[in-house]
Structures are given as C-alpha cells and as structure tokens.
Design brief:
Blueprint: E1 16-18, E2 25-27, H1 47-50, H2 61-74, H3 85-106, H4 108-118, H5 120-125, H6 127-130, H7 133-144, H8 148-154
Helix pairs in contact: 2-3, 3-4
Length: about 160
Amino acid sequence: MAVVIGIGNFKDSTENQHCWMCKKILPVREVFCHNCDSIQKMNKADYFARLNIEKTLDVDVDLLEKHYAALSKALNPEKFQLRGITERKYAAQHLEALNEAYQTLKDPLKRGKYWMVLHEKVFDDDEEYQELPSIQELKEDLSNASKPSECDLAA
C-alpha cells in the first residue's frame, strides 16, 4: 500500500488536480499520487501546512522536528534516482520549500515575523485597526527586531 503524504489538514478542501503521471484525480494538497506513487508538482501552502503542524505561534518544537525529519526523508531527491528527472526536480522543489518552512518556524523570531506576514491581510482589510497607532508601532517594532527578546518587549 502506498504511503500518502499530504501538506496540512485540508480534508474540507474541494480543490482537485490531476496527477501529472497517471492523470488520476487527487486532492491538490497531496504530495504523492495515491495511484502511481509519483511525486506531484509544488503547490502553494503556508509553512505550518507544509510541515503539517497547528497554525499557532506557540509551536511544539518536538513535533516540528519529528515532522520535518519524516518529510525531508520522504522528499530526498536521491530516492527518486530511478523515477526520472521530473520527479527528482519536484522532490528538490518540495524539499527546498520544506527547508525554508522549517528554518522559519523553528526560530521564534523568524516565526513571529512570518506570523505577522501571514496575518497581514487581517490588518489591511480592517480600516479600524489601520488607524490605531499601537498596531502601527507594534508592526514596526516587530519588523525592526533582531533578537527574540526584542519581540517580547514589543508585545
């Protein structure tokens, strides 16, 4: 039976794609095809979904490490030597995105900055918040922070 690795919990997602290899329909967030086990093209996912962890600032570091280790092992391009250049390319792309997500989420400062970028739309869409000087000051303090302790002081 094939091992299926997906990105995040998207059980309610109705988006589908066709496997590039066998053309079977599969959820857009799946990394591997259920039918032919081929690795799929990169898809857009936030860092939390890419590492299949809860979207929260207080990340469980042990779980983050565990998921990263399992996913990086499964996505190692060397495992796809016999599958061809296309799958090695897709694996390398997935692994690069996974590494970027991991490096960001394991560091509290980078995670906080990413959290602000991820939720920027909340502030942009609500004009009431845009006018609050405290929101502007907080965003400026966090973007200028160079150490995790400076983020704590900003809050």
